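Fold this sequence, please.
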Amino acid sequence: MEWKGIEKKEEGKFITRYDITYETVDHKEKVYEMISRNKAIESQEQLRGEKPDAVVIMATDESGERIVLSKEFRMAAGSWVYNFPAGLIDPGETPEQSAKRELREETGLELYEINDELGLSYSAVGFSNEMNVCVIGKARGTFHESTSTVEEIEAGWYTKAEIRKLLQTERFAARTQAYCYLWSRE
């Protein structure tokens, strides 16, 4: 594959759409559509990025017997989807600070212990270069409605048995589905 160039097509408030032109091994020119949080990509090197755009919070309760999930109405899917609490990292924030803020904003819970942090991963590598950091820890407190008026989120604690049932009947974000499957089988 040979890189030919990138062209900004449309800049939105949160994402920018680009067309990447490349040549295949059989010498055919192709255009690949993608979106990014970066509003100023001009080269192939800039596609890679060096820092996360967002944080994903994977938290259990103090006993480790329940995991927190958000059931959120996602416009792109037109339905409710189970996912881990997550959100964009604000300028100047570390992933840990963002994880604590996002969990409190979306659920009311306190992320009081961080046990691990997974390196960079892509949200939807098939059409975006958005990168996440996963923060793993323990949370406590009382649930409250999301502080955002533009998101419909219902957060709750789920046991392994409850997760196994949800996995059979409900829609999940892919990373959440995979993690929950493995977690519920322990």
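The radius of gyration is 18 Å. The chain has a mean pLDDT of 95.
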